Amino acid sequence: MSSKIYSFYFSLIIAVLFSNISNAQPKKGEFIQASIGLGMSAPYEEYNIMGTGFYAQVEYVYAFKKWLGVRPYAGFISTTPSESGTDTSLSEYRVTSKAFLLGGKARICAPIPWVAPYFELGIGLSAGSFETYTPIDNKKESGVLMHIPVTLGLALGKENGVEVAFTYYFHPEINQFSGAAAIGLSFPINR
User: Potential cystine with 182: which of 35, 42, 102, 175 (Cβ 3.0-4.6 Å)?
Assistant: First the structure.
């Protein structure tokens, strides 16, 4: 019985979100998106171990519809070990990333004017060096690794030209994810 209720509510939410599809995506057409932010890396396990640093990315955006688009991207992330806070037993552990990111993702937007929430999912490659040293893992890799990018964000403003996002790159081979809290700007290629 409860799965029918969840299915009903899920269907209702989808219907409401996509009922006004004309306002769903910030724009339709081709754009360049540039983002910069605070980079971080952390293990899959729930330890207070992470790295912090710098993140930047550029995307070529092709929006088929106002609510759906594809985004090939190139980026860079660099993190160094952070202090493990009050837990001195974790002070010797670290999680770091220094990599160039390349791949593609698709975006789906919700139809809310001035504030358009979105979700992105894709696949890509990371070229660089990675270290995941925790009480469970001791992995160090250099080279090219596959990653899965996942982003949650908001496109803001009248033209939705400013974006605030939390973006993550999951690296299954080394049991870590890299990510960022980033701010981005959109620039139209053709107007």
Answer: 35
Count CB-CB contacts under 10 A for residue 159. 12
C-alpha dist (Å) from residue 47 to 74, 83, 131: 30, 12, 15
Q: What is the pTM of this model?
A: 0.79
Write out pLDDT tens, residues 15-36: 544 444 333 344 567 888 999 9
113-154 pLDDT tens trace? 788 899 999 999 999 999 999 888 889 999 999 999 999 999
Residue 170: strand pairing partners? 148, 177
- Tokens for 142, please give them: 């250099």
How high is the mean pLDDT of the chain? 83
What span, in angstroms and rounded, lies between the C-alpha atoms of 126 and 129? 9
What own/partner pairs with CB < 8 Å and gap ≥ 24 does 18-24 have? 18/67, 18/110, 18/111, 19/111, 20/111, 21/65, 21/66, 21/67, 21/111, 22/66, 22/111, 23/66, 23/111, 23/112, 23/113, 23/116, 24/65, 24/66, 24/67, 24/109, 24/110, 24/111, 24/112, 24/116
